[in-house]
Amino acid sequence: MQFLNPAAFYLLGVIPIVVALHFLKLRRHTHLVPSIMLWLSTDEDRRANIPFQRLRNLLLPILQVLFLLLVIFSAARPALRRPGFMPGRAILIVDNSASMLSTETGETRLHLAKRAARKHISEVSAGGGMMLMVTSATESGAYIREAFTTDTAKLRSAIENIPKIDMPRELRPVFDAADRYVESAQDKVFLISDSFESLPETSLSIHKIGVGDDAENVGIVSFSVEIVGDRYEVLVSVQNFTDTVREVDVELAVENAAFDSKTVSIPSKATKPVLFSDDVSGLVGQVLRVRLQIEDDFTLDNSAAAVLAGVSQLRILLVSDNGKSLLPSLLAAYGEHVDLHQVTPTDYLGTGDSDIAVFDGSTPAGREALARSADAALGTHLIFVNPGDNLPFIGEAAGDVKEVTAPVRVIETAETHPLMTNVFLQGVRVLNSTSRTLPLSGRSLVETEGGVLIWVAQASGRQFLVFEFDAFNPEVSNFATTIPDAPLFVYQSLARFEAGTATLLPLEFTEGRTRHVFRTGEHVNITSIAEGATLHVEKPDKKTVNVTGSLFTETDQVGVYTLYVDERPLERFTVNLLDAGTSALPHPATTTEADTPASIENGLQPMMQEVWRFPALFACIVLLLEWWFYHREGVFVRRGLGGATA
Q1: How is residue 474 annotated by DSSP?
Q2: Is the pTM here over 0.90, yes or no?
Q3: DSSP class of residue 341?
Q4: Order of strands across the sheet with 559-565?
Q5: In this structure, are residues 526 and 550 in contact, taking their beta carbons and an 8 Å threshold?
Q6: Which of 118, 152, 75, 132 shows the shortest CA–CA distance to 607?
Q7: Are strands 130-134 and 90-94 parallel, antiparallel or unpaired?
Q8: Mean pLDDT of the 1-16 span
């Protein structure tokens, strides 16, 4: 037997104090009587008729000392070593991702996983201890729910407190974390999950414990909301993951109030788009939610929501005195919401509240303005045309600029970059340009035999687009007259920059996504907030999370979030599942735990089992006996005293 809390034995010093108090207790009573002769004989007779008189005087302190011994023994946490089922240490990983909320068996897969984990603790725990981890966490380092311990009570409590997370499963981080704690080949890693497909490559020996069964599910897999003209358009894709045709009522709600509905028939394993469109009047800023009126085993993907954001004005500042440039007309034609303000380089006094500032360095005055562009307001995205060696924001490249005076031709483009989508610039000719060594943050988009011609960069929360030639002067290059590729490239660049002016942005921008709509697990970049402001976000469960820096990571719940700046609500955004892989609800082919016996190596390994509950129970029994005896003795003495007096 071992004691997990031996310091409790210091409490044994209390026992002599209790014994001393018992013997020091005064029991004499004063009575005024005419004679004690009859009292003495009566007392002797009474004592002679009471068996075990001396023992009776000692029984109370014996019971009290026994009670203290049992309490101290229990507080020392005695533990017995018994055979375990494996050597080494154990790491138990419980899948708590979104698919574990499926209820095809009448209870969630997560509930089944917790039950399997509790069983595993009692049957597979190792003498070296067990660690409990989860696959989904809301913050770095939170994969560990309980560090290595032999305390089964702590492990059971940690299992009960495993949170449900609405995020898709991502095993690579938790496997990497577990790998750091495996010390020998005898250590074992157990994964309790509803799917073992696409497990990441790892050196760990993973023993699988499956939960879950066939599930019936119809869910939303894609969702977009936008304003087109004077109408809103809500496009939702609903996928049928069952083996039968399903009739589904799709409801559109505005701030949880039913607004419109449609009924669609979806074949087995098929996806059907549903479009809602109508007058946008009065709906800007409201939460539009699509709900599937259907009963299935997985409710998390039965709804999706988005805030209907209005088309805000895009403020563009053009600093140029180049009369031959086609750039002003290209910028003005981007959209009706463009507010284009053009100034000459001599009149340039700063970017002010512009969202995008364009600096044309094709003239001497323009190059001087470029040199003064370093005072551009934080948050303003910048476009430089023919900047030469005047790039104040990209200092590390300023000394590596060379003139390319010979005509060059485009030979390579970054076809995979979002700005180059459907843009074909092969063969564009340039009479003269410059070439430079790109900074670390730079990304080449278009190259010639003379060097990089067009490139992008990002630094300090703003984006840069650089043309290393007079791109919009037909006398220098045929770039601007390459239709439709040049206008398409400019408009895609403006769209990317415009998306970058929003307060809430994803870390990775992708074309075609709805503003203020994120997926569970996606990090939100908060921009354009005044320095020193206090930020916090209210989650769908009304929990408040303080935001340090400009990154919000706790998008672990489906629903509507509210961003507060200095206790003032600024913007709302929504988080949806929208993951077809999760909605498919994969499950293991079998739910047996056949891997557990196979993990037995080198015989059985002792493990610790705490037994403090048994002495604690005996202590309660002794306390009741002491209470009963104390009160019974008092009654007896009172009765005896009354008889002697009579």
Answers
A1: T
A2: no
A3: E
A4: 517-519, 568-576, 559-565, 535-538, 544-547
A5: yes
A6: 152
A7: parallel
A8: 79
